[in-house]
TrEMBL record:
Name of this chain's protein: Receptor-like serine/threonine-protein kinase
Species of origin: Oryza punctata
Any GO CC annotation of this UniProt entry: membrane
E.C. no: 2.7.11.1
Lineage: Eukaryota, Viridiplantae, Streptophyta, Embryophyta, Tracheophyta
Pfam families recorded: B_lectin, PAN_2, Pkinase, S_locus_glycop
Amino acid sequence: MRPANLSCFDVTVAVVVAVLLTTAAPSVSGQRSDYPTANLSTRWVNNAAVLPHSVTYSDGSAVRAIVLRSPKAFYGPSFAAGFFCAPPCQTFVFAIFIVYTNSGARITLPVNGMAQVIWSANRASPIGENATLDLTRDGGLVLREANGKLVWSSGTSGQSVAGMEITENGNLVLFDQRNGTAWQSFDHPTDALVPGQSLQQGMRLTANTSTTNWTESKLYMTVLPDGLYGYVESTPPQLYYKRQVRTNKSGKNPTRVTYMNGSLSIFVQSTQPGNPDDSIALPKANSTQYIRLESDGHLRLYEWSDAGSKWTMVSDVIKIFPDDCAFPTVCGEYGICTSGGGQCICPVENKSSSSYFHPVDERKANLGCAPVTPISCQQMKNHHLLTITDVSYFDESQIIMNVKNRDDCKQACLKNCSCRAVAFRYGQNDSDGQCQSVTEVFSLQSIQPETVHYNSSAYLKVQLTPSASDPTQNKMKTILGATLAAIATLVLVVIVAIYVRRRRKYQELDDELDFDILPGMPTRFSFEKLRECTQDFSKKLGEGGFGSVFEGKIGEERIAVKRLEGARQGKKEFLAEVETIGSIEHINLVRLIGFCAEKSNRLLVYEYMPRGSLDRWIYYRHNNAPLDWCTRCKIIMDIAKGLCYLHEECRRKIAHLDIKPQNILLDENFNAKLADFGLSKLIDRDQSKVVTVMRGTPGYLAPEWLTSQITEKVDIYSFGVVLMEIISGRKNIDISQPEESVQLINLLREKAQNDQLIDMIDKNSNDMVSHHEEVIQMMKLAMWCLQNDCNRRPSMSMVVKVLEGAMSVENCLDYSFFNANSVISAQGNPSTYSAPPQASILSGPR
Ligand SMILES: *[C@@H]1O[C@H](CO)[C@@H](O)[C@H](O)[C@H]1NC(C)=O
Ligand SMILES: *[C@@H]1O[C@H](CO)[C@@H](O)[C@H](O)[C@H]1NC(C)=O
Ligand SMILES: *[C@@H]1O[C@H](CO)[C@@H](O)[C@H](O)[C@H]1NC(C)=O
Ligand SMILES: *[C@@H]1O[C@H](CO)[C@@H](O)[C@H](O)[C@H]1NC(C)=O
Ligand SMILES: *[C@@H]1O[C@H](CO)[C@@H](O)[C@H](O)[C@H]1NC(C)=O
Ligand SMILES: *[C@@H]1O[C@H](CO)[C@@H](O)[C@H](O)[C@H]1NC(C)=O
Ligand SMILES: *[C@@H]1O[C@H](CO)[C@@H](O)[C@H](O)[C@H]1NC(C)=O
Ligand SMILES: *[C@@H]1O[C@H](CO)[C@@H](O)[C@H](O)[C@H]1NC(C)=O
Ligand SMILES: *[C@@H]1O[C@H](CO)[C@@H](O)[C@H](O)[C@H]1NC(C)=O
Ligand SMILES: *[C@@H]1O[C@H](CO)[C@@H](O)[C@H](O)[C@H]1NC(C)=O
Ligand SMILES: *[C@@H]1O[C@H](CO)[C@@H](O)[C@H](O)[C@H]1NC(C)=O
Ligand SMILES: *[C@@H]1O[C@H](CO)[C@@H](O)[C@H](O)[C@H]1NC(C)=O
């Protein structure tokens, strides 16, 4: 045994109290010191203090055993039933698990020897601390919350129960006076099987939704009279696996699939035990094993390894598909799994830009996609079939037999509202194919016809919105929207003004007033609390120059926590910056929720922005479909409004000084918000120019940075650069481009002088190209913002007016954009900047 194990063993001795549960009887023989049985009228409370056989593992999971078998050998894995919790250990299931035990029937803790749950009573509705489990004569096992709410029961009322036992092969049995079985866990499998256990005809193994969400997913395996089948729940169910046994025998006995040492054996109807009709070979067991149907649809075999002192996945029991892409939920609903890379993408027609589907969770592509407009059976005339070529669908059970040609296949789907998609598969002749219809669309798989030797296309039903409604209505909407926005802005201005005045008063009253008691300020969090909210900073969203951003959750609210590394500021300066940021609130500015300043820890808590930063959406590095023109316009408007607020609507003028796509974040609905006010320096209205040291990011720096005479107009220049990037779908400085077009702004100068602006439009998007007239108008606005002379650039409120159509762009623009960035890049001397080019200390979540 390795030293690490030894020390763990020591820990165990300290943790586990060496007395048996008073409520659990020792075994009848009395020779072995395990406690596999329990008598009637016993209540167990889910509390570590009263269940002495409680152990917490290094991963944070814990078991509180009620009945336990001692291991077959001196020590090793054995079965127990009791309460189990997965990290972070806040909710529990009543479960059967395999634990590592020593000869004294004490659960011990070898490294990585976490308890393996093989059955559970209440996985969809976990219980809390102090919940109770009662074993009664008439009711069997009854699980209740601490407040008495019934969660689960074995449902054995009517049969009298005499006791409970965990058998040597892991079956939890309620037995009656005559030693008959009143109830057993083997009759109610969850997602796993142990050797000796059978899945009887009609029983199911149902996978967890995910490793963290244990609710039952839609995937299940079941035994039918002629074999083992895997389905995805839907009406009708969709078949993804089939092991059909062809036999001429017929009898009354139900078919069963038994997990034996070395095989998964299928016994059809009347056959004798020991003579299976078919079997799936498994690796022979060297030690304790179990198989589990997992959330990705695989049936996997796990085995305890004495040598490694851990559980290892030994094999995929059922190699259903050679390719993971073929699993029905691999990319969630409507997701397309791209062969080769195995990446998940949302369906887009002919790589056009109009998207009818959006990802359910931008950061987790494998969770699938959802239609932008839900399908409505009331408006069937607005149904349209989206063509996705070279994809296939797993379920071949719903073939419409009499339909052989593509158009009939599509028509059949359009006529039946419950049809959500058809897949059409054919060889050389597309009037002689197969039409598969589905009522619910799970993952699609992209194929290469040459390698799979067939052609297949999918037609997904989408709901068109009644064509871009009548223009008067749109105008009304715009006016209404603008009015509302104006009112909202006014209210905000008043609130902020009152607030700022109040704050000043406070400051005059008491300059040393403790920060965290100021009303309306961001909340002060303890470091411990933030560590908990972010699950010990486990989910990293991104990294900036001064620290990393982590995802977290406070209650139901998702947050982004920026942990500043090596913050050089003192507490006082930090609090001052937090105060500044916290006092700025606007719909287009990322909200600071709270902060933490404890010892050397400096953290900022921001609202969470599910779609991340704008650069992910405009540079095509993340496989996102190109944004359509309308979305781009909205994003531009949001940025403009956010900046306008900072420049002109705050009581004190605020220059952002680091406008770039990385600092523009998007929420679920692509509303854009500015992040990162760390570089902001307050500029008083009466001082038009303020000299500060050079800051910002190369590529977005205005020419006047060279002279160090800067005003908020530098933001307008950067805004112009961002505008051009949004329009062209590329980075301003892109060294992967041919030399003459590395710098977007130089390219713009050339195209503007030669009247070839149309070349600048993002060619990845047909939608952009088809709106080229409007796009060119937008480019003119960008060029206005890029004027060398900062006095010739518009103010942010003028930009907003132009965007709203209430003003037009200045006519005589100077196209000789002077590009400070080339000068600065050419110098190539990082010490030119006082701040690192990436981010400031207080930069927002990325
Ligand atoms: C359970 O019942 C058995 C047999 O009646 C008895 O020997 C044992 O002491 C009982 N155990 C408890 C904890 O009451
Ligand atoms: C559980 O019960 C114990 C004893 O009655 C009590 O001290 C403890 O606070 C309870 N725990 C919870 C989470 O309610
Ligand atoms: C009850 O059955 C178990 C195994 O099935 C056996 O070991 C035990 O002796 C039986 N007890 C009685 C009282 O028959
Ligand atoms: C759910 O899945 C996880 C990981 O796949 C597994 O550890 C756990 O035992 C499963 N839970 C239940 C209740 O089966
Ligand atoms: C767990 O998954 C189910 C769907 O299977 C979903 O309805 C539920 O919201 C999920 N729960 C959590 C906490 O994510
Ligand atoms: C079933 O019966 C048919 C004809 O009676 C025979 O040809 C076939 O081989 C039989 N199949 C099996 C698996 O016994
Ligand atoms: C499984 O079978 C193999 C060989 O048939 C044997 O060596 C092994 O001990 C068995 N495993 C168990 C757990 O019974
Ligand atoms: C069982 O042990 C043998 C010999 O030690 C080894 O070759 C084999 O891979 C092991 N089987 C599994 C499933 O680990
Ligand atoms: C997409 O491609 C299909 C077949 O190639 C064609 O029939 C359809 O008109 C195309 N759709 C669009 C929007 O271009
Ligand atoms: C529509 O499709 C569903 C599911 O495929 C099918 O059950 C139903 O019979 C169809 N309805 C008609 C009118 O064809
Ligand atoms: C796919 O269809 C085209 C014609 O539509 C045909 O030429 C080609 O052979 C087909 N490919 C396969 C693999 O059947
Ligand atoms: C294609 O299939 C249809 C229907 O089976 C048949 O009538 C037609 O002749 C076939 N065409 C070719 C070119 O084979």
